[in-house]
Design brief:
single chain; 111 residues; mainly alpha
Length: 111
Amino acid sequence: CVKGKSENYFVAGRSLPLWVVAATLASQSIDSNALLGNVDLSYKFHFYDGAVLPIGLGLSLILNGVFLASKINKDGALTLPDVYAKRYGKVVEVLVSICTIISFIFLLAGN
């Protein structure tokens, strides 16, 4: 239940079990572009050309989980700009927000 708190809506009150979070993150990275593109690269060139993206995504999730997740959770940050805002201030938060928006525009254009 949301009960008027944005944290309850965005991160489920930080109460989800690990397997639900892992499945959610995996489902976000498994789209048709990544799946079919990696199969195509593996077929045309070599297995490792197609395996680079899934291996990189998996390693980045593990490294972020081991080294950063507890600190971000403890700070109560909801977004990457929140993390930078708490450390560097409002100006950096706005700059990171703009960079994030631009990167997502390019990501959506590529898909």
